[in-house]
Design brief:
This protein is of the alpha/beta class and 741 residues long.
């Protein structure tokens, strides 16, 4: 009898991916586990040397920071989405009034029209449930009877009618004592009721007789994911509902995730002709993200900010994948958790108190006394070392530096508050700089106008002297006329006046931002007044004859021929003042002390957590399976192959290409298929597989039937994983689908 292959390992098949391993005995609960659960999963950092009060402060700071942050995000999302939802609600209120006004003075149509609102909600299908639920709630508040339906429960016309009737009937009695009676009566979804729109007509007529105010109300049917509904079901419903429009004012709301063309591709022309369609755009994810970024990262009240790489990862996940607000919030929360869970210096966030109306953050003492290890960790930061060196040259020389490095009390009581105030001043000036850029963009061409999320990326990722966009906007400013500059300064002066008396806002010659902009505005208003020119400025007025060099350096001379020499001189001073303000406010955050702590930089952690790459994971597991299944024989075989390769003088790259007979069958078939082209000959593949299997260290060599069975299973698992597929061109070949890795 021929030998048959019988797997002896329960984990032998890779396609059977779910296993339940019950432990022999439940582990005993220790006091450490109880303390860990009581502290919400927080553990002492710094190799266990972190004080307990510091660990609990991190937990408290996370709770007090994230909860208002999450509420603020939800409030922004609701505020932005309400714009589109209000438009749909207004359409529902006046839907049949518009139809009647259009039909006045025209011949009666042979059929009635159904008011339909086609709403484009965007590709972020994960947020559609919350969006359409808000639409449902607002329509219900206006007195309409609303049915919100999903495609998974409406795969046939009877199920669609059932969902509509049950929700419409229950909406009348929601929150009343009659709700239970209606739920058990003829209109409450009883199993004996035949669900038909004729029942809706009778119910609507009965409702009208009991409530005279219902005449202005509508029966609204919302199809949340229109692409998922069977086209014939929606088509039949439209045809049936058209016959009842004279008795029941039905309004149809179609939610789309792809494009408006999907409606024309799904419904027939006859059904489309029965709809009075209005289009609405509910996709306001970008506006919501812009508002969130301004509120969370740009306004000076932010506690946790993102560095350039982490912010790019946060933004790419939103823009390049799904435009999901929920995904953005999850990623933001994960970053906040990582900051307070894994950063021992996150306790310094307790020194900042957010302030409203664009004011600078208030700085207080640290809630706890830092340990020596925490103080040393702060001193090790590169930005702190640069701050101490600059401060030592300014204040006390070597004595100040020596005391800051050796005296923990002096460092915590004097140096640390100075650095935190410096950080708060930078954040306020950065907010002023971004707001000034937004105002400059309003007078720039439309092609140069960038959204707030992009401006923040430029401010975080590039130096002021390197950023091309800043240079382009400054070139626009230098081409302005006197009248345009006056209007721009009227917008910039109130923004600059928000700056406090912090040392970060000082520019050249010790002049603050607010004084600089106010002096520029006064100089432009009275260019001939010597009080605004300054006694130290002895520059001669420009002559009427201009040289080519002057024209290149001062482009505004080409555009404002009617201005006097004094006005042109004042215009040049104003351009220099705006450039100085932007250069001061939009400096790099890497130059700010404690930037390594307060600017989250773990972009790799965010990418690996939220940007999963299943294909790369599967290919890596098949290439290096012994690391995943912890196989000792494969590791021993790898060592033997490595030593043999080294003796023969092969490169280290050959080590990755070796195929050991102790490897898993699917790993062997995967390695062999990597050596083939687009079409793989099954016979050649089987021959190569057999040559590898025959080298197994077994007392009895495997039979051909066993090798063939193992090869067939490996090929099927490769097809199941999506690496190959069958082809009709050559029946003895398969097509390779993946490349790389």
């Amino acid at each position: 009898m021929a030998d048959t292959y019988k797997p002896t390992d329960a984990f032998d098949s890779m396609t059977e991916s779910t296993f339940i391993l019950n432990p022999k005995s439940a582990p005993k609960k220790t006091a450490t586990d109880d303390n860990l659960a009581a502290d919400g999963g927080y553990v002492p950092l710094l190799q266990g040397k972190e004080p307990v009060e510091s660990m609990r402060l991190r937990k408290q700071l996370f709770e007090t920071t994230w909860q208002p942050l999450e509420e603020q995000l939800f409030a922004i999302e609701e505020q932005v989405n309400n714009i589109g939802i209000t438009e749909v609600c207004d359409f529902v209120d006046s839907s049949y009034q518009q139809i009647e006004s259009k039909e006045k003075g025209q011949l009666a149509q042979p059929f009635a029209e159904i008011a339909a609102a086609i709403t484009f909600a965007g590709v972020n299908t994960g947020d559609h449930g919350k969006l359409f639920q808000s639409l449902h709630d607002q329509l219900s508040e206006r007195g309409h009877h609303v049915a919100l339906l999903e495609s998974q429960y409406c795969n046939s016309l009877p199920n669609l009618h059932k969902g509509i009737l049950e929700q419409l009937f229950n909406s009348l009695y929601a929150g009343t004592e009659a709700g239970d009676k209606a739920g058990n009566g003829a209109f409450g979804g009883s199993k004996t009721v035949a669900y038909d729109l004729g029942l809706l007509k009778l119910w609507w007529a009965d409702t009208v007789t009991r409530d005279a105010r219902v005449g202005s109300k509508k029966a609204v049917v919302i199809l949340q994911d229109f692409e998922g509904f069977p086209p014939m079901v929606v088509d039949d419903f439209i045809r049936i509902a058209t016959g009842y429009c004279d008795a029941v004012p039905v309004v149809l709301v179609l939610g789309l995730a792809t494009s408006y063309e999907c409606v024309h591709q799904s419904l027939t022309k006859a059904s489309l002709s029965m709809l009075n369609v209005e289009r609405f755009n509910l996709q306001r994810s970008k506006q919501c993200i812009d508002a969130a970024i301004r509120s969370l990262f740009i306004q000076s009240g932010a506690i946790l900010s993102f560095g350039a790489e982490a912010y790019k990862s946060l933004l790419d996940q939103f823009l390049l994948y799904n435009f999901s607000i929920a995904g953005f919030v999850k990623k933001l929360k994960y970053a906040a958790m990582d900051f307070f869970y894994a950063q021992p210096l996150s306790v310094l966030a307790g020194m900042l108190r957010p302030a409203g109306n664009g004011d600078a953050q208030q700085v207080s003492e640290c809630p706890i006394r830092l340990s020596h290890d925490q103080v040393e960790l702060v001193r090790m930061q590169r930005s702190v070392q640069q701050f101490l060196e600059k401060r030592a040259k300014k204040d006390g020389g070597d004595a100040y530096l020596r005391q800051a490095l050796n005296d923990d009390g002096f460092f915590q009581d004097t140096v640390l508050p100075q650095m935190v105030r410096r950080l708060a001043a930078y954040r306020q000036c950065y907010s002023i700089g971004i707001d000034a850029i937004v105002e400059i963009q309003k007078v720039a061409p439309e092609t140069l106008q960038k959204p707030i999320r992009t401006l923040h990326y430029y401010g975080m990722g590039q130096q002021f002297d390197v950023c091309t966009h800043w240079k382009t906007l400054l070139a626009v400013v230098r081409r302005m006329k006197v009248s345009e500059m006056e209007l721009l300064l009227q917008q910039l002066c109130p923004i600059a006046s928000r700056s406090s008396d912090a040392d970060w806002e000082l520019v050249a010659d010790g002049v603050s931002i607010s004084r600089l902009m106010s002096s520029a505005a006064k100089l432009l208003a009275n260019p001939d007044d010597p009080a605004h020119i300054g006694a130290h400025d002895h520059t001669e007025p420009k002559k009427r004859i201009r040289t080519r060099t002057e024209m290149e350096q001062c482009p505004f001379l080409l555009f404002d021929h009617g201005a006097s020499d004094a006005q042109l001189r004042a215009l040049e001073k104003c351009c220099d003042a705006i450039e100085a303000m932007l250069k001061t406010c939009l400096g790099s955050y890497n130059e700010v002390p404690l930037s390594e702590i307060f600017y989250y930089r773990h972009s790799f952690l965010l990418d690996t957590t939220f940007s999963a790459q299943p294909r790369a994971a599967v290919q890596t597991a098949l290439s290096k399976s012994h690391y995943y299944i912890n196989c000792e024989c494969c590791a021993a075989g790898d060592a033997e192959c490595t030593s043999a390769l080294n003796q023969n003088g092969h490169d280290s790259d050959d080590e990755e290409q070796r195929i050991s007979p102790t490897m898993h069958d699917t790993s062997i078939t995967y390695r062999l298929h990597q050596e083939c082209g687009r079409l793989i000959n099954l016979y050649d593949w089987h021959s190569a597989f057999s040559s590898v299997i025959e080298r197994e260290p077994r007392p009895v060599a495997p039979s051909q039937a066993e090798i063939q069975a193992r090869f067939m299973r490996g090929v099927e698992e490769m097809r199941f994983l999506g690496f190959i597929k069958a082809t009709q061109r050559k029946t003895d070949h398969v097509v390779r689908l993946t490349w790389g890795m």
